[in-house]
Amino acid sequence: MDRVVRPVLGPVVALVLAALLSGCAAVVVGGAVVTGVAVHDRRSVGTVIDDNVLEVRVRNALYVDESFHQGSRIKVNAFNGWVLLAGEVPDEALVELATERATEVEGVLRLFNELAATGRASLGEASNDRWISSRVNAGFTRIRGLPGFDPTRVQVTTARSVVYLQGLVTRAEAEAVIERARTVRGVERVVTLFEFSDQQAES
């Protein structure tokens, strides 16, 4: 497994370290740009980077097995070490194998395996999922009456018209984004994987 992971993570880790040492405002990790984190994200810069690297590690841990190469569409999203798997695999055995492989990855604190044992989404279905995610994100920008609310703090993943929401939010923010997501046309269900910042403040 290490032979597969190193070629991907080596340049990523080097780039992250170089950026941190030079004080760069933007870091590219696994194809994602980490920028302006101190302003927009309640996680630390280091945690954001860790989560992006964790996504790469989990994908590698899955796709090192050729069983996932055919008929699978797996979306991986990590937030504070909580990892979501969403999408489709051909059968239940691969759902279980995905759980086994992902939980073995260092840094995974909790795993939410929402993979469905069904045929891979068609191009039209995949396009619809992307459209739903964009509409849900756009809807969050119209939320009013929540001082300090930043819609970019909520991560949206859509698979088979089911919307998954992750982030570190207040209870009031969670209620608002859930209600907004439910109103988007085409959304069949909203699943929340939130951590609550006001709960952390109380503990």
* CATH architecture call of the largest domain: 2-Layer Sandwich
Distance between the amino and carboxyl termini? 39 Å
How many structurally independent domains?
A: 2
Give the fraction of residues assigned to helices. Answer: 40-55%
Order of helices and strands: HEEHHEEHEHEEHEH
| Broad structural category | alpha/beta
User: Quick one: biggest sheet?
Assistant: 3 strands, mixed
Number of strands: 8
Q: What's the CATH topology name of the largest domain?
A: Histidine-containing Protein, Chain: A
Kindly provide the radius of gyration, computed on alpha-carbon positions and rounded to a whole number of angstroms: 17 Å
Please give the order of strands in the largest beta sheet: 3-4-5
| Overall geometry | globular
Content of β-strand: 25-35%
Low-confidence stretches are 1-9, 11-26
Number of helices: 7
What is the class of the largest domain in the CATH system?
A: Alpha Beta
Tell me what you see in this structure.
This protein folds into two domains: 2-117, Histidine-containing Protein, Chain: A (2-Layer Sandwich); 123-202, Histidine-containing Protein, Chain: A (2-Layer Sandwich), CATH 3.30.1340. The chain starts with a helix and ends with a helix. It has helices at 2-22, 37-40, 45-63, 92-103, 123-140, 171-182, 197-202, and strands spanning 26-29, 32-35, 73-79, 82-89, 110-117, 155-159, 162-169, 189-196. 45% of the residues lie in helices and 26% in strands. The chain has a three-stranded mixed sheet. The protein has a three-stranded mixed sheet with strand order 6-7-8. It has a two-stranded antiparallel ribbon with strand order 1-2. The chain is globular and about 50 Å long. By secondary structure, the chain is an alpha/beta fold. 27% of the residues are buried.
